[in-house]
Amino acid sequence: MKKTPKGLRLHIAILGRRNTGKSSLLNCLTSQYVSIVSSHPGTTTDPVEKPMELLPIGPVLFIDTAGLDDVGGLGILRIEKTVKMFDRADVILLIAEAWAWTDFEENILKEAEKRNTPILVILNKIDIREAEPDLTKKLKKQGIPYLEASCLDKTWELTARVKAEIINILPLDWINPLPIISDLITENDLIILVIPVDKEAPKGRLILPQQQTIREILDKKANCLITDEKKLPASLNNLKKKPKVVVTDSQVFKEVFEAVPSDILVTSFSILFARSKGDLREFVKGAAALDDLNPPDRVLIAEACTHHPIGDDIARVKIPNWIARRTGRKITFDVYSGHDFPPDLSAYKLIIHCGSCMLNRKETLSRIYQAKSQGIPITNYGTAIAHLHQNLKRSLEIFS
After folding, report:
1. What contacts 224, CB < 8 A, 6 or more positions away?
2. In 3D, which of 249, 210, 235 has the Cα closest to residue 386?
3. In this predicted model, what pLDDT tens digit does every residue of 231-288 receive, in sequence order?
4. Pairing verdict, β 48-54 and 58-64
5. How far apart are CA 332 and CA 393, in angstroms?
6. Tell me, what's the pLDDT at 182?
7. Do the Cβ atoms of 12 and 140 come closer than 8 Å?
């Protein structure tokens, strides 16, 4: 499970003021010395990430953050990085001293409530002083789960208590995760996956969306045939059984739609992930904005991975070229990679997001929410490319 990708892990952010015991809690939960612990405030600077298997929850990613009351110029930058954790967090562990509750803690509670993010308050350092009765009374009244602890206690009992509370507040989509394709197929169905082997294909392996889709097909006890766009026509001709659906990489939409008969369903990995990781309806609505682009409009292209771009890169070359060909207009494009995503989107007429295989669903939905709240249409690679090739309606037939 150590190799489980970050995007498939439950993201648990540890937040609080400086020197409240955030790093001690992480070290306790992981039974490892992951974060430096010191009595000097502000020891943790950049977020520290620790992937692990937290049974029975499964693969998780703990994120230890800098204190939200950091000071100075660098402190402001650290706080900005910590605040960005709200976009990634599926669950928040808020660490506070058992007798001290300030505006910082209140602001975290308000932000978590606004984002509908489950939160667990840990009143720490009870080995020094008991929890303030008025504080525990307040938390009970507001229905906020909490526990009293000493994070210097390295015994399994504390880990078990925290784990039990995390399970209690776990988001429903982690208990019943959204499928990629398994709910759209049945046992013994034949699914064809079209995987082009181009310059961007990783050497000696398949990319994550392809791996995950294959796994769901196998778990469903269905059949999977893998080919590329050049061999697809011959593969279809050689079949005795009609496939349930053809799933293609978005980059070869045109070739695949031309090769597959109209009585066979066709969609893309990216469109399947738009439903699983994001909001497919919102992405479909956003794709319509492609037809309204005019100079000097700017388009933000957001890709979750930080691969080294090649000459024919999909984000920097192919999508801009397809848009220019469809609209006949020269549009300006900005590309953001990894977890970078501008807080102010007002400069953009449209956002085109990648398939989000490297992000968890929380962060993808956070970006969609951010775009909607600022009135900016958002779509994703597969939905946009299908629209540009005038095949979006057919790509969505599998969901009907």
Report:
1. 190, 191, 192, 193, 214, 217, 218
2. 249
3. 999 999 999 999 999 999 988 999 999 999 999 999 999 999 999 988 999 999 999 9
4. antiparallel
5. 27
6. 96
7. no
Tokens standing for residue 206: 């398949």
Q: Which residue has the tokens 């990648």?
A: 354
Residue 70 pLDDT: 52
Tokens found for residue 183: 């709910």
Phi (first) and psi of residue 392, to 5 degrees: -65, -45
Q: Which residue has the tokens 């392996």?
A: 205
Provide the b/e sequence for 335-372 (b: ≥16 CB within 10 Å).
bbbebebeeebeebbbbbbbbbbbbbbbbbbbbbbbbe
Rounded (10°) CA dihedral 345, 79, 45, 340: -10
Q: Which residues of 257-275 are buried (b: 16+ CB within 10 A; e: fewer)?
A: bebbeeeebbbbbbbbbbb
What pLDDT does residue 72 have? 46
Contact 229, 252 (CB under 8 A): yes
Closest CA to 153 of 52, 47, 21: 21
Alpha carbon 27 to its chain centroid, in Å, reads: 25
Q: What is the pLDDT of residue 167?
A: 82
Q: Please, which residues have CB within 8 angstroms of residue 3's CB and are 6 or more apart in sequence?
A: none
pLDDT under 70 in the chain at which residues? 1-3, 6, 32-46, 55-56, 67-82, 154, 172-173, 175-177, 198-202, 306-311
Predicted confidence at residue 224, as pLDDT, reads 96
Radius of gyration of the chain (CA): 24
